[in-house]
């Protein structure tokens, strides 16, 4: 592709090029990679209506036919994996490892869902009346949108809590079910018996992978008093340079750090004033001496900024970990599995990873949050069931 290439929309199985387009620029270099078609509201409605019309014939396909389509899609993506990775790295400025993870995960999910399709079974519950029988069928909702529309069946949104609330409100007005995966403020608890080298490496990775711009990224590291100094040294040594993907995110993180340092927080690692070659770049910042009245304590940074706080007891760790509206992911580092499980049970979140970073996603595990991090689940059998509803059919024996 060249800078003048326009990536079209895809509606009714065909390329569609509207009059408007916009530049796709590399965050790393600022150069125009290619152009993308600019969809209008009318174009979006056409695409949704086309999908709704296609549902009529899709309903007549067998589970095996649907399975074949999903497995074929996974095979195509697998064969074009390197090409797709090049596009992702260029368009988002992400590291090649992050592109590889997302593509491998996408391929695995297509294959996983394809394998599960034939297992969506009906059930035959026992009726109170022995002369009656029933079947509980599972059928698909139909077209699922990420933007609320009153004439379609379900909404799926992944993004910020602020936008999630707006979409949920619109969905409620039309009585539409919704699946939300929203922001996070993931804590990592490092206990005194933890493998500190592992904890430092995983906390650094969990905080700064993809520039910290993942909803599951570590935002607070809660360190036991007994090992606070040693851990801080190891964490600082484990932190590596990272690149953000847009200037607004870099500005937001610098402002959070500035607001925290003015009343007393300190910089354990990094330099918020460091000169960068581009406004989209920002080096990792580790903020120490953070207090609950600072914006950075509760605001999701969604960038390469992490706070370190000290704790003395499990009760204090749980209180600080839960002192947020969000609840998407968490980590606990300890060699005592019982303690790890005890803390995992007490943290109000959708996932807790013991002795591993907060960022984790795979097709076999249901993924979603608690509190303001949303509701509903993606992945695995629970995720597949989110896209179906039950229908009761009763009859005389």
From TrEMBL:
Gene3D superfamilies given in the database record: Aldehyde Dehydrogenase, Chain A, domain 1 (3.40.605.10), Aldehyde Dehydrogenase, Chain A, domain 2 (3.40.309.10)
Q: Does the keyword Aminoacyl-tRNA synthetase apply?
A: no
Please provide the Gene Ontology terms (biological process) for this protein: gamma-aminobutyric acid catabolic process
Instruction: State the UniProt keywords alphabetically.
Output: Oxidoreductase
- Record-annotated Aldehyde dehydrogenase domain positions: 20-148, 153-393
Q: Which GO terms describe its molecular function?
A: succinate-semialdehyde dehydrogenase (NAD+) activity
Active site residues of this protein: 181
Oxidoreductase among keywords? yes
Q: Which InterPro entries match?
A: Ald_DH/histidinol_DH (IPR016161), Ald_DH_C (IPR016163), Ald_DH_CS_CYS (IPR016160), Ald_DH_CS_GLU (IPR029510), Ald_DH_N (IPR016162), Aldehyde_DH_dom (IPR015590), Aldehyde_DH_Superfamily (IPR050740)
One Pfam family from the UniProt entry?
Answer: Aldedh
PANTHER family, from UniProt? CYTOPLASMIC ALDEHYDE DEHYDROGENASE (EUROFUNG) (PTHR43353:SF6), SUCCINATE-SEMIALDEHYDE DEHYDROGENASE, MITOCHONDRIAL (PTHR43353)
Q: What family does the entry list?
A: Belongs to the aldehyde dehydrogenase family.
Q: What is this protein called?
A: Aldehyde dehydrogenase domain-containing protein
Lineage of origin? Eukaryota, Fungi, Dikarya, Ascomycota, Pezizomycotina
